[in-house]
Amino acid sequence: MKPNYLTPRLTFSLILPTVTTSPTPTNKGALCDCYIVSGPEPGYFTNHHFWDFRNIPLPNLNQPTQNQNPLSQNATLRLTQTPFITDWFPQTWAKTGTQEYLPITNAQSNVFFARNPTPQQPQNPTYLLLQATRLPTYVSTAEIELRARNIFHCSLRVRMRLMSKETVLGEATTTNARQHPQAEKDIAQDKHSTKSHRPKQYQHPADQNIVPKGACVGLFTYQSKTCESDIEILTADPPNVIHYSNQPDYDPVSDTAIPGAGSIVNLSIPWTGWVTHRLDWFPGLSRWYADQGLQVVKGYGVPGMASTVVLNLWSDGGDWTGDLRVGESVFLGVEWIEMAFNVSSSAVGGSGRDDGGLGRARARSARRVGLGDGDRVVEGAGVGNKILSGIPKQEDVAGGAVRCRRACYLSDFH
């Protein structure tokens, strides 16, 4: 973390905790009285965790990688086999299918650590992977939930990217013209040709990362269907498009989206590359960031109850996610998760969601109409057109913020 990112207007001393890579969750609470974040208000969070997945001792990690499948059982390690299980628990719930939707089954085997074929630094050779695979009769999916159910306001950051199987394996992939940058030019030329030929094939290097369409990533705080803040990525969308929302964002009676609840945004960096996604949940206000850039601010539907945190990768063949082809897999790579947070003395709800987390997405029927080019929206902190006169501050630490003399600043860089 760099000193020039400190918030200068705070008068108490600031301590930047040293970030270490460890197979166990790290908590630098002994160094800090509170935690602050960038943005219009620093927040005052009393708790902090940093889960680092970049240097996990995998089987055969130090052996030569040539001709070794990084997804083989003797080269990976399930999350359930590591100390991270203390805080994060892979889900195993299933959802039956209907005429519109495929059955889905979450499996612990779909959440594991693997060798990163393109690590950003040599000393960080691993990452956490979530995998979703379309099988003939159902979709095998992945979800992890934070065991804590009493999170009450937080700054949540996840460094992640979506990947194809070829990218995870470090292989090149062959695709048809519709998926290649040269396609549009060649298709236009073919329209003026009288020759009959087979569709052109193109070689993509693995780092071009052509992710199959038909899956959804969800990163969200959750207490109930109407007490939830979301970051969602659809692989059927263009790779710069992301969805931010507070729930509920859909009115089933009128079959329309609720104004002010959700936003579709174009990011400057595609989700096929490494991006730090951030959700700040303050009293009466939600902010979404990507790589430190503020994307959306909302005052509508901000959660008001203690919640948990969920990260999932799924598909059910419906209108919202689209449908993967049989045999296709989508992977979500995660380098680290960081959260500064406050807690409530009582927690309501949390585990055992009766809809498996999919009820809302299914109810709104996946309407992506009017997607267009996306937009960056910084909305007024109020309901409808009402703008609040001031942005609410995060609650003070016990005894008042004046007692926070050793504040640690959260950075998006680790």
Provide tags for this entry:
single chain, 414 residues, mainly beta, Jelly Rolls, 34% strand, disordered N terminus, signal, lectin, Concanavalin A-like lectin/glucanase domain-containing protein, ConA-like_dom_sf
The description of the largest β-sheet is: 18 strands, mixed
Distance between the termini: 7 Å
- Mean pLDDT figure: 78
| Rough outline | globular
Blueprint of the fold:
Blueprint: E1 34-36, E2 47-52, E3 77-78, E4 88-90, E5 94-95, E6 104-106, E7 111-115, E8 126-134, E9 139-146, E10 151-164, H1 165-169, E11 173-176, H2 183-190, E12 201-204, E13 216-224, E14 227-234, E15 241-246, E16 250-251, E17 256-257, E18 262-266, E19 275-282, E20 285-290, E21 293-298, E22 308-314, E23 329-343, H3 359-363, E24 407-409
Signal peptide: 1-21
InterPro entries: ConA-like_dom_sf (IPR013320)
Keywords: Lectin, Signal
